[in-house]
Amino acid sequence: MDIKELREEINQIDTQLVELFIKRMNTAADIAKYKIDNKLPVFDSLREQEVLNRIAELVGDKMEPYSSRLFNTLFDLSRAYQNQLLPHDSQLAQKIKSATCDLTQSFPTKARVACQGAEGSYSQQAGEKLFSLPTFMFFSDFQAVFQAVEKGLCDYGILPVENSLAGTVIPVYELMEKYRFYIVRSIRLRINHTLLAKEGVTLGNIHEIVSHEQAIRQCSEFLKAHPHIKVTYFSNTAAAAKYVADTERMDLAAISSESCAKLYGLSVLSDHIQNRDNNCTRFICISKGMKIYPGANKISLMLTLPHKPGSLYTLLAKFSALGLNLTKLESRPMPGKDFEFLFYFDFEATTCSPNTVNLLNELDSSLEKFIFLGSYSEVF
Description:
Blueprint: H1 3-37, H2 45-59, H3 64-85, H4 91-99, E1 110-116, H5 122-130, E2 133-139, H6 142-150, E3 156-163, E4 167-168, H7 170-176, E5 182-190, E6 194-197, E7 208-211, H8 213-218, H9 220-224, E8 230-233, H10 237-246, E9 252-256, H11 258-264, E10 267-270, E11 280-287, E12 298-304, H12 311-321, E13 325-333, E14 341-348, H13 354-366, E15 370-379
Parallel strand pairs: 1-2, 1-3, 5-15, 7-8, 7-9
Antiparallel strand pairs: 3-4, 3-11, 5-11, 6-9, 6-10, 12-14, 12-15, 13-14
Helix pairs in contact: 1-3, 2-3, 3-13
């Protein structure tokens, strides 16, 4: 047989497959109706394993790895289809519906906002871009920001989550599982690091530089060019600038912002000392309750997956099938559990889409741990 004849045979086989696929999905729909009437869950791991075992015997060892992938995909498609047919009155769906603001309710302009660090911090600068009339409260660490929001001391909290040069702000992600909150907005802030010292001090006088770990990583090339200068981590860039202003030392400098120079009466020894000019930090704005404001087009999730081959692939296939664009995928080891990970997802989608809500319901009902972190828009 030549290539045309072989392709024609493939076409005929594909036609049969399509007919059988439709028949299988229709039967899955009938099963979904039965499950609704009898209050049974969509996911049945024992049944799926039984099918895989039977298929493995039918196809033999040579084709078993391929048939396993094929039928796992079919299971996934069947579950997705069945979930669409189930009543959309899950607890998560109801919370999303009640949290969705109407088009007349815009993002607030006035609020009590928690920030880590001191006056002049980059978190404060992000908050000033999000709120027209904010009242800031400053806390010593990221955990205190989560606590301030959780206890109702502040309406919102501003937290850095990633930087274009230094990557993920790991301490914030490690705290996300511990506290219950929702992301209501995010912002990308352009960061320009400057080296600040007391008036009259020159770069040649500096023996020590203090700043936050992230800022130091973002300015690593500048610091490598001055290997004789000691580098000390500080809780926050603004707090580092304030420390330099308050101390009597004339050999100390801080990596901070130009606004902190004006705020604390310091001089700029060097400007634009970050490794790259396109240095941006992404901040999230969190609240205690779920609020989905008009224009929300981004969703964040936190979840665990079964510790078995193909789990992540299967999950990613769900997003791909709906044409959803993943913008972040982060994994962190789970404390006290060997080789188990907590995954963080950011993707572009709106909760106004029934398909998106169906996917969220499916994940919520099928995964051991699933946390909806919020639906929001991002400001640039």
